[in-house]
């Protein structure tokens, strides 16, 4: 009742709207408001229509006039769509759609790669089920608008703190951030919103560098400090040790992101680099003879092995030390993040944490930046990252591969706490439905939490980073919040699909990508081919093979695909041999697409006779044959076949359509997303025998009857039970 009164008061204070579509909407919504019968979707749309109409009537769009007309049109389209839905409900042709909310006073618990907790339905019923977190970040625009965002129905936000906020002067603690956070978390608790705290060590006070000039090092990206300097570590302990315990009692604070987009690849001014490099080599090789045998060199001692003080030119010439350098740099950065995580855990016990990493895992230059998924995911309980999809099938594919690599490294909830669904400083049109398609696809492939970038604006700066983000776009905001509500409503089905245990793994080798850059395309094409067959592949780092964790991590794995993996570390190759030898008796094996792992990371040849041994199961494909049909036929030899496929009604492949299925409580659940701005051909779901099936779309707010043949509109999402 309290929330209804707040909503009614908020709506009453907003201005009236103009235009035929808005007049019709105002007339239709009036009795729903008076009788307090708007469902969560209706409340959300009503708030957005009024908010954006108010902005259109004011000066909000003065510095970006290009966005005024699209916003006006989108408000009218939203009003017209909601008018039709309310009319259908009033006529008894549709129903209000209930959405559960997280039970206040509880935190989600981590269940493998899912988040689970009690939810409360509008009728008061409580049940435990998967939950999805969604909301906005991260600055004062979101802070000041949190009441509005809470009424929309979001349940997750992010805010950040760095040393310069806490100790702007060496010996003066500034409690302003503390007071601001207490206000923010108090508002969040009121609406049942959880907060992710971003630890931001890139915000450093000038007094620190004046006192410690040798710590001023631009490592690339946001990090501009010597990570291993004693003064740096002492600053972190001083600032966070003072500030974080003061937040420990705030109920809204749930999770922590340790660092923002950490990379380290410009090392020439870091005074610790040479010492740490020598220590790494000494620990790894013990003797200089051991190093020389691996590298094919003749160094007299470890001191003669100079560090790589600047990234080589791309493409790299083969240099055996670069593999060890990438490993050293990644271990060093992950070790520093681990120390921050330990400190955070001591100050905020019980708060799950992850690292907000960016995708730097595939290109040569990226591999030199210290971002190793396997190392990073050893820290904390969440798989944190930062990224987003752009319109176009290639972008969807790249993001799926990156998410899959995270899940291949560790089975833990995926939290994108800087979810880039819109481009910064962009006034171009955003395709209707794209934000929804991207967000929903993310969830179907493992995403559990999203903090959309960004709910902020700048009315005076034409070149502001925030121009064109959600605060400017009615439709994109509606699509994002609506999808979050959908994910809460449909959570068990979405979690069942994203949680299918993979039968197909695709090997990721840093060494191979370092020296065989063409294999990126093979990896992507192979992933796309498996996905297009309706299977859920997982990208597995070679460290999982080396650790012996493969069978335990992926109990249903039947096939490991090597996407032109020519270079592989010895430890990973040993794990591969174990998988191949054990798999013969269980109808498991290897599908090699392109070359075999005949080389070590240092360019040494190895014996690959096991691939010709009749006591192991190996299939081979040329790189040119890495397409859906041919890969699917090879997988069938290992008894891997999708239970359900989605094809054009004439039997041809469904182009630019993502689809998945799962069984939950004896029901076959299917989902599909059109990944393009063109409508699809007529489509059919078919079971393994080829028999067509029919479904009702539960993702729609006004579900239609069961259909065997159907089309998907541009960017459309469907999800439901298959009969």
Would you give an account of this structure?
This protein has 723 residues and is an alpha/beta fold. It has 25 helices and 24 strands. α24 links the parallel β15 (559-563) and β16 (589-593). α3 (40-57) packs antiparallel against α4 and α11 (273-285) packs across α13. The longest helix is centred in the middle third of the chain and has 27 residues, at 321-347. The chain starts with a helix and ends with a strand.
Structure characteristics:
alpha/beta, 25 helices, single chain, disordered N terminus, 24 strands, 5-stranded parallel beta sheet, 723 residues, 8-stranded parallel beta sheet
Structural class: alpha/beta
- Share of helix among residues? 25-40%
Count of individual helical segments: 25
Poorly predicted sequence stretches spanning 5 or more consecutive residues: 1-18
Give the strand tally.
24
3D shape: globular
Distance between the termini: 40 Å
Summarize the biggest pleated sheet.
8 strands, parallel
Radius of gyration: 27 Å
Residue fraction in strands: 15-25%
Task: Strand order, main sheet: write it out.
Answer: 9-8-7-6-5-12-11-10
């Amino acid at each position: 009742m309290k929330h209804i009164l707040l909503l009614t008061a908020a709506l009453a204070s907003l201005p009236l709207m103009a235009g035929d579509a808005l007049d019709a909407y105002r007339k239709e919504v009036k009795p729903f408001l008076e009788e307090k019968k708007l469902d969560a979707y209706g409340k959300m749309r009503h708030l957005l229509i009024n908010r954006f109409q108010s902005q259109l009537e004011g000066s909000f769009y003065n510095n970006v006039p290009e966005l005024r007309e699209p916003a006006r049109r989108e408000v009218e389209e939203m009003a017209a769509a909601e008018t039709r839905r309310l009319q259908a409900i009033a006529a008894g042709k549709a129903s209000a759609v209930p959405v559960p909310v997280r039970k206040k006073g509880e935190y989600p618990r981590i269940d493998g790669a899912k988040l689970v907790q009690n939810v409360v339905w509008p009728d008061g019923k409580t049940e435990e089920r998967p939950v999805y977190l969604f909301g906005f970040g991260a600055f004062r625009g979101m802070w000041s608008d949190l009441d509005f965002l809470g009424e929309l129905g979001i349940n997750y936000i992010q805010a950040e703190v760095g040393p310069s906020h806490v100790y702007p002067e060496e010996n003066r603690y500034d409690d302003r951030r503390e007071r601001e956070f207490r206000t923010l978390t108090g508002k969040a608790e009121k609406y049942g919103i959880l907060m992710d705290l971003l630890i931001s060590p890139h915000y450093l006070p000038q007094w620190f560098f004046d006192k410690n000039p040798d710590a001023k090092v631009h490592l690339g990206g946001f990090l501009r400090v010597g990570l291993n300097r004693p003064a740096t570590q002492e600053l972190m302990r001083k600032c966070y040790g003072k500030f974080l315990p003061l937040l420990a009692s705030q109920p809204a604070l749930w999770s922590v992101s340790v660092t923002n987009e950490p990379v380290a690849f410009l090392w020439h001014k870091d005074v610790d680099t040479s010492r740490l490099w020598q220590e790494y080599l000494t620990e790894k090789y013990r003797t200089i003879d051991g190093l020389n045998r691996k590298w094919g060199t003749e160094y007299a001692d470890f001191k003669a092995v100079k560090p790589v003080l600047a990234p080589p030119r791309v493409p790299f010439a083969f240099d055996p030390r670069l593999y060890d350098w990438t490993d050293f740099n990644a271990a060093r950065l992950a070790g520093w993040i681990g120390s921050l995580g330990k400190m955070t855990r001591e100050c905020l016990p019980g708060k799950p944490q992850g690292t907000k990493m960016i995708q730097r895992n595939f290109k040569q230059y990226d591999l030199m930046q210290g971002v190793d998924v396997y190392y990073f995911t050893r820290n904390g309980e969440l798989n944190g990252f930062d990224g987003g999809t752009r319109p176009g099938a290639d972008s969807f594919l790249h993001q799926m591969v990156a998410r899959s690599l995270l899940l291949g490294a560790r089975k833990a909830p995926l939290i994108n706490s800087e979810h880039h669904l819109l481009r910064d400083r962009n006034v171009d049109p955003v395709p209707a439905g794209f934000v929804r398609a991207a967000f929903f696809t993310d969830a179907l492939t493992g995403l559990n939490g999203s903090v959309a970038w960004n709910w902020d604006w700048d009315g005076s700066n034409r070149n502001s980073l925030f121009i064109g983000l959600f605060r400017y776009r009615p439709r994109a905001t509606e699509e994002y919040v609506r999808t979050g509500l959908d994910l809460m409503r449909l959570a068990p089905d979405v979690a069942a699909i994203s949680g299918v245990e993979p039968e197909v793994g695709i090997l990721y080798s840093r060494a191979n990508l370092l020296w065989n850059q063409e294999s990126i395309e093979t990896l992507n094409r192979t992933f796309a081919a498996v996905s297009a067959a309706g299977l859920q592949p997982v990208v597995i780092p070679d460290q999982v093979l080396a650790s012996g964790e493969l069978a335990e991590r992926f109990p249903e794995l039947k096939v490991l695909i090597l996407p032109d993996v020519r270079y592989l570390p010895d430890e990973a190759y040993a794990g591969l041999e174990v998988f191949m030898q054990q798999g013969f008796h269980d109808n498991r094996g290897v599908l090699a697409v392109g070359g075999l792992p005949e080389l070590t990371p240092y360019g040494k040849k190895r014996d690959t006779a096991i691939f010709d041994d009749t006591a192991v199961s190996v299939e081979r494909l040329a790189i040119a044959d890495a397409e859906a049909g041919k890969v699917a036929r090879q997988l069938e030899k290992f008894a891997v076949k999708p239970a359900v496929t989605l094809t054009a009604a004439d039997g041809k492949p469904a182009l630019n359509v993502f689809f998945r299925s799962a069984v939950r409580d004896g029901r076959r659940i299917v989902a599909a997303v059109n990944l393009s701005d063109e409508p699809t051909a007529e489509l059919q779901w078919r079971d393994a025998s080829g028999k067509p099936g029919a479904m009702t779309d539960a993702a729609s707010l006004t579900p239609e009857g069961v259909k065997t043949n159907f089309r998907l509109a541009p960017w459309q999402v469907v999800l439901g039970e298959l009969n």
